[in-house]
Amino acid sequence: MTKKMKHFALLISSLIIISACNNSSSYENKSTQAPAEGTHKITVKEVVHASSYTYLRADENGNEVWIAINKQDVPEGETMYYRDALEMHNFESKDLQRTFETILFVQDISKVPVVPDEQHMHDHQQQPMTGNTENIQPVLTKIDVDVDIPQGGVAIGELYANAGTYKDKSVVVRGKVTKVNPGIMDRNWIHIQDGTGDEEHFDLTVTTQTDIPKVGEIVTYKGTFATDIDFGMGYEYDILLEKAERVK
User: Fold this and answer.
1) pLDDT tens track for 24-70
2) Residue 100 resides in a domain
């Protein structure tokens, strides 16, 4: 081997060693990096399985919390981490036949803490919290429809215009189904329009326990009218018809 070739081989070897050291250092820094801001650490105390969710009674900084996650096996005593949650108050689980005063619906939960990562943050900001909640508030378009208001019923436009008048009262509405999201947080979410309202306030969200209509169907519902509902994570409703039942 010539002197020039020996020098070249030594240079290549040095570069390989430096690269390996850099990769090792980068991996070590990432593995020992502090958890991302907003990371929550819990210790699982009790695990309860239902048809769609797994409910965790956990300890978080000495406080007892209930957390709902997509159904999966989680051993009691496990330490887990999550970042964002959709907080629900007075949530009724039909499967468990119990009401949780406060419960957190969590999508991203793991045995290791999430470290800061720009791409993760970007993806997370682009995708709302799920656990089958990502489509509760879709982008809506006003359709060309003219639905007769039932006797004793209220038009959607009227509900928006005078929401305070109907708050907490039993209300009957009729409309054409434009979107259906079944089985989200133990209820079905139905969007209806009746042709009333303005360009911003034309859609009414209705929640039911059992009824799941078809898109395009004309339905009549009776339920409790609510205003200014905030489920967290950006899921806010000016008006909402809750626990509605189909009227024949």
Assistant:
1) 443 344 344 555 667 899 999 999 998 778 999 999 999 999 998 88
2) yes
Residues 242 and 162 in one domain: yes
Q: What is the CATH number of the domain that holds 50?
A: 2.40.50.140
Give the angle 43-123-53 at the CA atoms, nearest 5°: 40
- pLDDT mean across residues, the chain: 78
Kindly state whether residues 110 and 161 are assigned to the same domain: no
- Average pLDDT over every residue of 137-159: 87
Cα separation, 172 vs 246, in Å, equals 10
> E strands within 71-215?
79-82, 86-93, 98-105, 109-110, 170-184, 187-193, 204-208
pTM: 0.53
Specify the residue for token string 């806010």: 236
